[in-house]
Design goal:
Blueprint (H helix, E strand, L loop, with lengths): L11 H4 L22 H18 L4 E5 L6 E6 L6 E6 L3 E6 L4 E7 L5 E6 L5 E6 L3 E6 L4 H5 L7 E2 L7 E4 L6 E4 L5 E5 L3 E5 L7 E3 L6 E6 L6 E6 L3 E6 L4 E7 L4 E6 L6 E6 L4 E5 L8 E3 L6 E6 L5 E6 L4 E5 L7 E3 L7 E6 L5 E6 L4 E5 L11 H16 L4 H7 L6 H26 L16 E2 L2
Parallel strand pairs: 5-9
Antiparallel strand pairs: 1-29, 2-3, 3-4, 4-5, 6-7, 7-8, 8-10, 11-12, 12-13, 13-14, 15-16, 16-17, 17-18, 18-30, 19-20, 20-21, 21-22, 23-24, 24-25, 25-26, 27-28, 28-29
Helix pairs in contact: 2-4, 2-5
């Protein structure tokens, strides 16, 4: 039987040039996307980019000094990027210009602790409440031309003229929030009260809850919906139009504060005493959408980025963390050697910076992206930075890139508690698996953390 032989043949015209002046004929594809070493090159660049990110990570920008007591409340002024308001435990309120790192106005507003402060939409006045049972309305002037030239030398004392308006309540107030682009604001205490700037008495009160209400927040899109956290471990949602609570969620431990997502009106995040944060959908409160871990002590405050994609937290463990809205673990952790436990945190109006207020009386400024430069980047620099971030994200599933980009130095106390919690969690999982293995089919399993919420209508 004859054997079949395969011979290698080629046409000379496809390979050789007719004359020496002709262009060389190449067989390779000059498109860089089809290069045989494209993935290897991209992996090397992603690895180097992750290393550069950690080398250039310098998140701390500066500290605003001037308060003499702990900072308990903070808010950013609408329609401005470089102005924030902070309230301290000694009743003092300061209006800061972040660009100059100076106080523009100083107010000795209350005789007690400032538990809530907010600014009106036109940025011409601020409201403050305290545990001395008073709410005060202060008129401020933001001379943007003067501030932009850097001519602010000393803080102006607004106590000379006094408060423009004041309201007195029957009980101490625990928080305050202004309805978006209206003259209506809400306060919490033993009851939730809805106030108007044109009236001296509350327009409406919600007293269904018998326990103290720790915080109240308006929905940014649905103006008639507000959420509140209570001392009976519950989260209540109220509708101002009906004048009653529409939903109530009970949790194993007490929620401290909640914050609505500005881009997803139905979603809100609750900061809890059990060191976790829970993202809920108000349309379905049977279980939490996401459970955000990493803190080792109670979470006292949370604030969303204006983009709605991230939020910042302030915790009793003296750390500030930044989470993606759908991520379980934190993306960044910020702390300082002298920074004590945090009571409040806020995002800047352009989402570039994060502000924290702590027990040591300082307002600290942090970059939301630790490795991005502060100055103005040229088009080439920005393109190079975005390309580097894209490659890091593309190859983040690989162990080498993930371990470098995800590595963070944490305080010793936080690291010790994290290890202990991991051991306890692994032991509980192992015990639950053994119990299910020796149980009859259909035996109840241990609930997940997202399923502990109980809806009480």
């Amino acid at each position: 039987m004859p054997k079949l032989i395969k011979t290698i043949t080629r046409v000379k015209e496809d390979v050789l040039r007719e004359t020496t002046r002709d262009v060389l004929k190449t067989k390779k594809n000059i498109n860089p996307d089809h290069h045989p070493f494209r993935r290897a090159r991209e992996y090397t660049r992603a690895l180097n980019g992750a290393k550069l990110d950690r080398m250039f990570a310098k998140p701390f920008v500066g500290a605003l000094e001037g308060h003499r007591d702990s900072i308990w409340s903070m808010c950013r002024i609408p329609n401005t990027v470089s102005s924030i308001i902070s309230g301290a435990a000694d009743g003092e309120i300061k209006l800061w210009n972040v660009a100059l790192k100076k106080a523009i106005h100083t107010i000795q507003a209350h005789s007690g602790m400032v538990t809530g402060v907010t600014a009106l939409a036109d940025a011409e006045a601020i409201l403050s409440c305290s545990d001395d049972r008073t709410i005060k309305y202060w008129s401020i002037e933001l001379d943007k031309d003067l501030i932009g030239k850097g001519e602010v030398d000393e803080a102006e004392d607004l106590n000379k003229g006094g408060a423009v308006r004041a309201w007195t309540g029957e009980n101490p107030f625990t928080s305050l929030d202004m309805q978006y682009q209206t003259n209506i604001f809400a306060t919490s205490g033993l009851e939730i009260a809805i106030w108007s700037l044109e009236r001296t008495l509350p327009v409406r009160t919600f007293a269904e809850n018998e326990n103290t209400i720790s915080s109240v927040r308006w929905n940014k899109s649905e103006k008639n919906i507000l959420g509140a956290t209570c001392y009976d471990n519950s989260i209540c949602l109220y509708d101002v139009r009906t004048g009653s609570a529409i939903r109530k969620v009970l949790q194993p431990m007490r929620p401290n504060v909640l914050c609505w997502n500005p881009m997803s009106p139905h979603h809100f995040v609750a900061a809890n005493e059990d060191t976790n944060l829970y993202t809920f959908d108000m349309r379905n409160l049977e279980k939490a959408l996401h459970v955000h871990l990493d803190h080792v002590d109670a979470v006292l405050d949370v604030d969303f980025s204006p983009t709605g994609k991230e939020f910042v937290t302030a915790s009793y463990d003296a750390t500030c963390r930044i989470y993606e809205s759908d991520s379980v673990w934190s993306r960044e952790i910020y702390y300082a050697p002298r920074m004590q436990r945090l009571h409040c945190a806020a995002y800047s109006g352009d989402a570039r910076f994060v502000y924290t207020g702590s027990d040591d009386g300082n307002v600290r400024i942090w970059k939301s992206q630790a490795s991005i430069p502060l100055g103005t980047m040229s088009q080439g620099q920005r393109q190079h930075y975005e390309e580097r971030q894209h490659l890091i994200e593309k190859y983040s599933h690989l162990k080498a890139v993930r371990s470098i980009s995800g590595h963070r130095r944490v305080p010793r106390r936080v690291k010790t508690f994290s290890k202990e919690r991991k051991i306890i969690s692994n032991a509980a999982d192992k015990r639950d698996a053994a119990r299910l293995a020796h149980s009859r089919p259909g035996a109840p399993r241990r609930k997940k953390k997202s399923e502990f919420a109980v809806v009480a209508d």
